[in-house]
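Subject: Predicted fold for Potassium/proton antiporter, 503 residues

User T.R. writes:
Posting the sequence so we have a shared reference for the thread.
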Amino acid sequence: MDVAELDRILLAGAAILLVAVVAVRLSGRIGLPSLLIYLGMGLLLGESGPGHIDFENAQLAHALGFAALVVILTEGGLTTRWNEVRPVMPLGLVLATLGVAVSVGVVACVAHFVLGLNWQLSVLLGAITSPTDAAAVFSVLRKVPIRPRLRGALEAESGLNDAPTVLLVTLVSTGEVGEKGLLAFSGLVLYELVVGALFGLAVGWVSVRLIRRMALGSAGLYPLTVLSVAFISYAGGSVLLHVSGFASVYVTSLVLGRAELPHRMATRSFVDGIAWLAQIGLFVMLGLLASPGRFVLNDVVVALVIGVSVTVVGRFASVAVSATPFRLPWREQTFIAWAGLRGAVPIVLATIPLAEGVPHADRIFDVVFVLVLVFTLLQGPSLPWLAARLKVLDENAAHEVDIDVAPLESLGADMLQVYVPSESKLAGVEIGELRLPPGVSVSLVIRNKQTFVPDRRTVLRAADSLLVVAPSPVREQTVRRLRAVSRAGRLAGWFGERGREQH
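User M.O. replies:
I've generated the structure tokens; pasting them so everyone works from the same file.
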């Protein structure tokens, strides 16, 4: 490759990235998951489209796909609210193991007895299509204001279910699953998940203490440090302990996201941008790997049959079995079942049998590709409507304030940036009526692009932005008080996180 060729590649790549970024806004307006647009871009650039790019390297796609999933899981863990995930982590773990097993069994039986496929292809289809996709779940659900425990359960499941499915697809593709037996395989999955999670916890715990003590020369080095820790967690777990790197990196990211680290918000913003880049590159690459000219009517029929079996029968059965011990209401079970979005993960998993040279692996890839396109198109846009119909929306979401933290390490204080949305009951409240903890000060108000220093009699308005300085020991109390007043007004209970008097 010479400089001229590199320049052409950079030009094309930058143009594709710019179009993809603009497509994010377009997908939000029309209610489509952005992955569909990126896959479509890959198809247009591929050998069957106007781009005529010939890309058939399944092994490279497999490797790059796993690397992209690591970045996506890292971003998901960093931005997940631990207080939402912790209570439902057992449910997420059951969905990621027992639920996946139920779904694989249902799809495999349908593929074998209804479609007449051999058991290897049937089990492969079940294992490839059963896991939910972290990128799809993280991006779509955070735009739908559902109850925190539902969002937490779905995010935990999508972060954990990659491990057993990757292992199953790999063992079936190499023919080892028959040699090991069901009991040995179950023990191996348990070992990979448990030890992988413990390793990720250890890496996160050590990293938090090291990063807090670091005095790096630039704020931009902290995001790079966090991303490096995430890859160490993934690769260290996989190489050193032979456990699930995906479980390791997700748990490490949860620990890092929960910790009070220097320049935490800058780190999250950086990783969010890298995760978008990973998603765009991943979906465009998978679109390039697909070949629409190879699709036949039979593949479409198989994709629809498998899609219905995994989305309707298998998914609802797996959720019902997994949720039984937790006594979830049927409305919540129904939403969790329908919100199990498939995205890049099944297509990435479909590259494993391609890389291993499994007979008819290209047909599996085509079926999975069509399935993801069709059922993501059906499920994604319907989630807001379904959440409203099932009455699982978070009643306080419209009154929630958006609070960001900028650490002031040298002062032992934090600066809270608070935005007052139109439905918030902060509007109309005087500064003095906020009754913030001692030592907390509302230092600045930004209104209609004008800034001024408020006094105790200043009345807040909708669309105001506030800068609140709070000593670190009372920061959480301050946040809880602001949220309570936002939901219930000036008479909210002192520490009522839900805007009610506490007894």
